[in-house]
């Protein structure tokens, strides 16, 4: 797979607003109709994680705004950290009538970026119609969290267990972050989705976890309210200049960059930092995307783009979306294409650093 240079792409509310007003032909809604049809919205994960919640939020929105008001049904095809579902979608590229869409996540993008041999899909064959940014929150049990005071130095003697989907899935971002902080974290690989990692935490089988923003708001906030979990930091968000700032959904929590800066031997410059940031962008700042197959006509692409723009621009969307998606941009049109490009590219140096780390720490090879 060719390696392409990463370009800056600041995903912000301003960008989302720009995406909403990007020009589309007024006749787009006068083209194809899906009346009487069922759209399968395929997610390569289990229904318990953040991707399922994201898809189930947008499914009724699309049913309402797509021409003909089709039934939109979310289907789950989990397996191999989402590569099984993505490989399946790659084989459906001739189904371009608008009745099949596919939702990806960073866990789908990471194996692609790293050249994982399980990957038989090609992002450049797919046509993006939506890109959603998200965040993530790291949390601990109360008895361990009481030793956290803004840096990770007092946690370095703790032995952590972490339920993980796999080192090359979206969990690459937390695992590399934990390493940079000097934490002793033993991942238990093979967990089915981030929802499985949360259940391990709830059962006391893990003592560190993170969830994407939507899953955190839906499933972890109640644990926090009951005094069973304590959030300590987020991954952060990107501003328009490509700098990591506090997550707008959780402005009272420090970002990973802040924690790294405060922690001894954790650096926010150099190869390790560049590698972490590259995967953070792919995994969070431009994490979830909706694709149509390659064979979908421009009319079908325009139809979906217009439908998504209508849904996002509708009165009350932001208020309805906030508890589910957090405060993150929903990019369409050219903004979605830019997000797709950013999320599916990597510099050679960052790629090699991560490949070497995976081999050294987890004996994971990608050849």
TrEMBL record:
Residues 1-28 form the signal peptide. Keywords: Signal. InterPro entries: BUG (IPR005064), Bug_dom1 (IPR042100). The keyword Signal applies. Belongs to the UPF0065 (bug) family. This is Tricarboxylate transporter. The lineage of its organism: Bacteria, Pseudomonadati, Pseudomonadota, Alphaproteobacteria, Hyphomicrobiales.
């Amino acid at each position: 797979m060719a390696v392409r240079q990463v370009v800056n792409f600041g995903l912000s509310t301003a960008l989302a607003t720009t995406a909403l007003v990007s020009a589309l032909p007024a006749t787009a809604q006068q083209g194809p109709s899906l009346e009487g049809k069922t759209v399968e919205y395929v997610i390569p994960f289990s229904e318990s994680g953040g991707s399922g919640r994201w898809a189930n939020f947008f499914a009724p929105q699309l049913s309402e705004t797509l021409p003909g008001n089709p039934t939109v049904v979310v289907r789950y095809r989990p397996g191999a950290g989402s590569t099984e579902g993505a490989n399946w979608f790659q084989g459906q590229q001739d189904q371009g009538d608008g009745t099949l869409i596919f939702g990806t996540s960073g866990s789908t993008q990471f194996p692609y970026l790293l050249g994982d041999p399980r990957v038989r899909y090609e992002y450049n064959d797919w046509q993006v119609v939506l890109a959603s940014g998200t965040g993530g929150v790291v949390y601990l049990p109360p008895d361990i969290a009481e030793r956290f005071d803004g840096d990770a130095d007092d946690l370095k003697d703790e032995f952590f267990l972490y339920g993980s989907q796999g080192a090359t899935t979206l969990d690459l971002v937390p695992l590399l972050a934990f390493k940079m902080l000097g934490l002793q974290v033993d991942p238990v690989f093979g967990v089915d989705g981030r929802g499985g990692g949360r259940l391990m935490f709830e059962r006391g089988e893990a003592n560190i976890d993170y969830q994407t923003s939507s899953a955190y708001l839906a499933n972890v906030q109640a644990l926090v309210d009951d005094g069973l979990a304590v959030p300590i930091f987020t991954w952060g968000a990107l501003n328009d200049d490509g700098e990591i700032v506090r997550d707008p959904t959780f402005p009272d929590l420090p970002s990973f960059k802040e924690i790294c800066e405060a922690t001894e031997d954790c650096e926010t410059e150099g190869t390790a930092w560049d590698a972490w940031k590259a995967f953070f962008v792919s995994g969070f700042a431009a994490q979830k995307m909706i694709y149509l197959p390659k064979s979908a006509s421009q009319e079908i692409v325009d139809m979906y783009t217009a439908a998504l723009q209508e849904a996002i621009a509708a009165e009350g969307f932001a208020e309805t979306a906030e508890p589910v998606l957090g405060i993150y941009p929903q990019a369409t049109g050219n903004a979605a294409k830019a997000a797709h490009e950013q999320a599916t590219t990597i510099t050679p140096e960052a790629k090699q650093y991560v490949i070497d780390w995976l081999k050294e720490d987890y004996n994971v090879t990608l050849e």
